[in-house]
Amino acid sequence: MKILAFDSSSKALAIAILEDEQLLAEMTINIKKIIALH
């Protein structure tokens, strides 16, 4: 099973793609400005 995971709990956004518990790709993006839409 493929999993697309996001961690947005801080100013750095982390994204990972896993398949059967194996890490295929990961990326971290620094967010300078946070915009909340309601």
Overview of the structural elements:
By secondary structure, this protein is mostly beta strands. 0% of the residues lie in helices and 61% in strands. It contains no helices and three strands. Strands 1-2-3 form a three-stranded antiparallel beta sheet, with no helix packed on it. A hairpin with a 4-residue loop joins β1 and β2. The chain is elongated. The mean pLDDT is 89.
Mean pLDDT: 89
- How far is the N terminus from the C terminus? 33 Å
Total number of distinct structural domains: 1
* β-strand amount: over 45%
- Measured as a percent range, the helix fraction is under 10%
Number of strands: 3
Descriptive tags:
three-stranded antiparallel sheet; 38 residues; 61% strand; mainly beta
